[in-house]
Amino acid sequence: MSDSSVTVSRTVAAPVETVWDVATDLEAMPGTMSAIARVEVLTGGDPFDVGTRWRETRVMMRREATEEMTVTHAERPSSYTVEADNHGVHYVSTFTFTPLDAVRTEVTLTFSGEPTKPQNPLARAMGRFGLKMVKRELEKDLTDLAAAAEAAARRG
């Protein structure tokens, strides 16, 4: 892991297909992830695949931030990668779904941000500080995803 990436994992008590379906249901995302206020699907989405694009508005530190996301890799039900560019940084998020058995899935999320233009030393230092906050946010996302997928699995 480079100093500009964060990886978090969580075991979810739901089959891998169920976890995939919940994680890729863009229309339901504001109800699934507590940090996501709005999602506007721009292209694709059903089925979720390479080229699917959406605008996602998140609340971070009591402020809204909107990013345009694009799926650059999708392999149902094992992994997908989403990329975005904003404020001189290229962001990459990769979700990996590993079945542990018929009813449990390990979800791993790796997030990285690489500057696309030179940054001063203060910006680089703030970036490292920001990664700690990002890790907390990603852990919360996985907690929310687990709760939604486990509820969906119980409903059958």
Q: How would the blueprint of this fold be written?
A:
Elements: E1 5-12, H1 16-23, H2 29-32, E2 36-43, E3 53-60, E4 63-75, E5 79-86, E6 89-101, E7 104-115, H3 121-155
Antiparallel strand pairs: 1-7, 2-3, 3-4, 4-5, 5-6, 6-7
Features:
156 residues; alpha+beta; Alpha-D-Glucose-1,6-Bisphosphate, Chain A, domain 4; seven-stranded antiparallel sheet; globular
How would you describe the overall organization of this protein?
The chain has 156 residues and is of the alpha+beta class. It has a single domain (5-155), classed as START domain (Alpha-D-Glucose-1,6-Bisphosphate, Chain A, domain 4, 2-Layer Sandwich). Helix content is 30%, strand content 45%. It is built from three helices and seven strands. A seven-stranded antiparallel beta sheet has the order 1-7-6-5-4-3-2. It is globular, with a radius of gyration of 16 Å. It starts with a strand and ends with a helix. 22% of the residues are buried. The mean pLDDT is 90.
